[in-house]
Amino acid sequence: MIDAHSPLARIIERVPPPAEAVNGRGDWADAERALGTRLPDDYKRLVETYGRGDFWGALCLCTPFGDDNPVRLEAHLVEDFGPLREDWPEQYPYPFFPEPGGLLTWAMTDDGAQVCWLTEGPPESWPVVIWSRDSDYERFDCGAAAFLAGWIRGRLSSELLHHERETAPWFDAAIERDHVYVRLEGPAEPAKGEGGLLPYPERLRILRDALAPTADRGGYEYNGKRQDHFVVTDTGWQLTYETAYGHQLRVAFPPAESDAARRAVLAAIDRMGCAVQSVGTVHGTSSWDPSPDPSAA
Length: 297
Description:
With 297 residues, this protein is of the alpha+beta class. The protein has 7 helices and 13 strands.
């Protein structure tokens, strides 16, 4: 039972957990013996609730479970950075676990910064320290769950942890996904007064309406080129519609949902008034026939 007033409850209120916590279950006693330390209870509940994955596209939660886990909770900092510290000690003001009071990484940022505990005193009192590759540090006198709750609710800010401030927070479980790109015919933007192709904002609106409900994942516009990210909330499919690298749509989805994603996306493209030029697979095994399925419209 989760305490309704706990930091974890405040996280869940804003960010629904996944149906299954990837690498979120295992023997905590074995994990603690392997590390040589007891772990904070709030972190254990966080791992059991969310598992491996990323918050807000910015912070990847490490867990101690799973043989295929590329971000295992391990005491690796002293091995990775100890030799560098010998040459530039001024850039490493904190010790590394298992050194007394050393840093122990429990999450990573999308920029490669380490989100650590400073293992001083009992685990429930360990503060959070973010350490960047440029040897910049930020300290927060709270535990992992309280740190996440404050960051997600906008009550705690960090210069080393970036995210899409204009979008609602989310969590993406680290599940296998196929990545397909659909290149579209025609110019990225129609010439002024040219008929046929609708303006980009209208195409984007039709696309999202066809796949609704969707949630914004941010984007950017530069020199007339656009890139818009969103997710289909019922399925978790991730999409990027863009003109930044050619006129195309990128789609990520679980491999078992390839046929459903293909039918829905190609029907949506047809409603946009666009024609498919080619379909390619960036990662995975899905192969889409670009011919739309009328039954999906």
